[in-house]
Amino acid sequence: MSLSGCLRRAVASRSRFAGLLSKEGARWAPATQSTVRQLSMARVLRVDEGEGTMAEFAGASTYITTTAKIIRADEAGTIPCYRLLGTDGVILNPDDEPDIDDETLVHWYKQMVQLNTMDTILYQYQRQGRISFYMTSFGEEATHIGSGAAIAKGDITYAQYREVGVLLYLGYTMEEIMNQCWGNHLGHGKGRQMPVHYGSKELNFHTISSPLGTQLPQAAGAAYAVKGEGKCVFCYFGDGSASEGDAHPAFNFSATLECPVVFFCRNNGFAISTPVHEQYRGDGIASRASGYGMDVIRVDGNDVMAIYKATSLAREIAVNESRPVLIEAMTYRAGHHSTSDDASAYRGDEEASVFHSEGAMHRFNLYITNKGLWDQDKETELKATLHKEITSAAAVAESILLPSVDSLFEDVYAEIPIHLQKQQKEMREHMAKYRDVYSEEGRMT
Questions:
Q1: DSSP reduced 3-state for 71
Q2: Residues near 121 by Cβ (< 8 Å), separated by ≥ 6?
Q3: Dihedral over alpha carbons 386, 179, 191, 440 (to 10 degrees)
Q4: In angstroms, rounded to a whole number, what is the distance separating the alpha carbons of residues 315 and 277?
Q5: Are 270 and 280 in contact (CB under 8 A)?
Q6: What is the third-level CATH fold of 79-399?
Q7: Domain locations along the chain
Q8: Per-residue model confidence as pLDDT tens digits over 176-215
């Protein structure tokens, strides 16, 4: 099925009275209130008789049925999943293949291998006690690179905590990753955030926070703020976040306020240890879009080509038509939820191996190899180079001084208020009293 066939334009019940709002927006003008009541009554009364005839109600446009029938949940049908690259690395629909030059294709693959290699090394470092915490993206590399490649300069990104590949694709350096993970004084968070809470003002990538779903309504608001500027807001979240209360206002506001935002859901099968069949009973996350009046596409999350095509089209709709689009990427979390999790406690190795056999990196490797762009020698050389670069960056970050304790009071207020100045003075006095416990440089230890 083509991409255009997969992308369903959800039917939006748009208000016909939006233009009647007063300029203040906070209240209706008295004359307008009366007019709206009259128009609403007219819609209610405009109901034709008979099976299948259209009816206009204040709340929705619908059609009449003369038979009482509860619509069962399984009667709605299943939203198809867009796949462009077969598991054998062959394009399934050449007419839909995006026009991407060979250099970019190889760059995509290198980015995927870099992400995978970095995850492996940092996971091991956490186990060695060199960093405090880490989250891998094993199995989900295509969702990062395919979507990241569709983000344009000036776009705004709100991530969850498993999208570091997007940030790397946008230009975040390996040094910045390592400084943040080690919490040194050059790190983005200066040790005041968890290691994977990356952020970049320069790249319009808002700092990550662990509470699920908080970025969803924030993204809707940001998209509303940049309407008409040719920018798009990208908001990443997982299937678990879709169960949070924040998801509803985010989807509803973005649709009713017609915001240029792409909601990118990584449906990887688990919300930590909770499988999707315990999270919802509907047709995944994509089926929720029509209820909010959002456009939607479901895509194979292990197909970097399909993800890029789907995300590019979603961005085009969001910006040109000023409306939200929901993408549900069907993938699999091949690793543990985090270094604090043991996935073997709630799923077997056999399940993971089945999904891993159709992994994103393997599939894309076959594709560029079939095109004559890649071979085993290049693979071996790339992995060796990446391992050296990543471990070197880590060693440097590990040797950099930790932040000054004074940084605890910085970066919130332009000028430190009096009550915090008092606390800072008390802290300094405490450190001076116990010099044998604290470093002479006044840095965290």
A1: coil
A2: 387, 390, 391, 394
A3: 130
A4: 30
A5: no
A6: Rossmann fold (3.40.50)
A7: 3-69, 79-399, 404-445
A8: 999 999 999 999 999 999 999 999 999 999 999 989 999 9
Contact 404, 187 (CB under 8 A): no
Joined together, the tokens standing for residue 145 give 């690179």
Give the mean pLDDT of the chain. 88
Of 163, 158, 159, nearest in space to 145 by CA: 163
Residue 331's identity, in one-letter code, is: T
pTM equals 0.86
Contact 146, 305 (CB under 8 A): yes
The amino acid sitting at 125 is: Y
Burial class of 163 by CB neighbour count within 10 A (0 to 12, 13 to 18, 19+): buried
Q: Which two tokens stand for residue 269?
A: 């099968």
Cβ contact 6:298 at 8 Å: yes
- Give the residue carrying structure tokens 């879709």: 242
What is the CA 400 to chain-centroid distance, rounded?
A: 31
Paired strand residues for 8:
296
Q: What SS3 state is found at 267? A: strand
Residue 183: half-sphere exposure toward Cβ, Cα within 13 Å: 19
Q: Encoding tokens for residue 278? A: 């315990």
- CA dist 404 and 96 (Å) reads 54
Q: Which amino acid is at 321?
A: E
Look at the block and give the residue holding tokens 């990241």.
148
Cα–Cα distance, 63 to 406 (Å, whole number): 66
> Number of helices and strands (H, E) in the chain?
14, 11
When computed from its CA atoms, the radius of gyration of the chain, rounded to whole angstroms, is 25
